[in-house]
Design brief:
188 residues, tt1808, chain A, two-stranded antiparallel ribbon, 3 helices
């Protein structure tokens, strides 16, 4: 950000119309349109596939032990981010607080990238997630039909896996069950 430029505030964010998703990254206010159908389908299907993880753990090999939320507002230092999905391990957040936003960084985030958000997701938000020690990050591109799985190693992201198309995968940290990526994409 240009040092002479005024930093965006939360009051600026609140003035953005409801039909836009508003975020503050590195002092800049970003307002993007609500997702188009490929993006919306992917986010919904990912949430469905991760449903078994969003419950009390019942013991190995059953999944569980997470809170998975759609578009939670995260206040991470001076940044205000809205990932498409985020998950907290119940061991770190035993209950979901009744709040408008979360200050506790999630353990996993998923950004469904689009032509209007891809650069912000990669260049703006990924460093914030690393700084805040989010352990796992997924970037999903519903147009290219790809899943990039990242793991935090110290302060930098490492590609743990890349998948695409019609693969059936076990992406970390949700590798207790198989996920058929075909369900994430619009029909051709």
């Amino acid at each position: 950000m240009d040092p002479a430029r005024r930093r965006a505030t939360y009051d600026d964010l609140l003035k953005v119309p409801d039909h836009l998703v508003a975020e503050i990254v590195d002092g800049e206010l970003y307002a993007t349109p609500r997702p188009a159908s490929p993006h919306a389908r992917a986010a919904w299907a990912i949430g469905q596939d991760l449903g078994p993880f969003d419950r009390q753990p019942t013991g190995p090999p059953q999944p569980g032990g997470w809170w998975i939320l759609f578009e939670p507002e995260l206040h991470l230092g001076p940044e205000v981010l809205v990932p498409d999905l985020a998950g907290w391990r119940r061991t770190r957040m035993p209950a979901i607080p009744n709040v408008a936003y979360f200050e506790l960084a999630p353990d996993w985030v998923c950004e469904v990238v689009s032509p209007t958000t891809g650069r912000l997701d990669r260049v703006g938000k990924m460093p914030v997630y690393a700084r805040e020690r989010v352990a796992h990050l997924w970037l999903v591109d519903p147009i290219l039909r790809t899943l990039e799985v990242y793991r935090l190693d110290g302060t930098r992201w490492v590609v743990a896996a890349t998948h695409g198309g019609a693969e059936v995968v076990r992406p970390e940290p949700f590798d207790a069950t198989e996920i058929d990526l075909t369900n994430w994409w619009l029909a051709e």
